[in-house]
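Hi all, long-time lurker, first post. I run a small reading group and we've been trying to get comfortable going from sequence to structure in the token notation. Rather than ask abstract questions, I figured I'd post a concrete chain and ask someone more experienced to write out its structure so we can walk through it together at our next meeting. Sequence below, copied exactly:
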Amino acid sequence: SIHMLISQHNALLGDEKTLTGMIGTIDQRTDILAVCEDAFQAASVLCDREYLDHPRLKATAIDTTDENTETQGKVSAAYVPAHLHHIMFEILKNAMRATCE
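-- Answer (accepted) --
Happy to help. Here is the structure in token form:
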């Protein structure tokens, strides 16, 4: 969207420097599962407020390209975390509403 492009432009040309691995608004190692779990928590607060309960989440992630079984659960990608959070929040919010109603 145009807002994402403006944010990216401002972040790249701004005076602030980050040490987090972010390039503008893009995180080179976005933890997909962590962002999804955070979106679930935010949606569950709304669901609790409306329906006094929320469905539980059991989520796992597997990187099938990783041969090391100890690190296969850590899935990351170069992506905009805020965008992924917004998408997952809306999906989970709608799913919680459909489940509770």
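A couple of things your group might point at:
Residues 32-51 form the longest helix (20 residues).
The chain has a mean pLDDT of 87.
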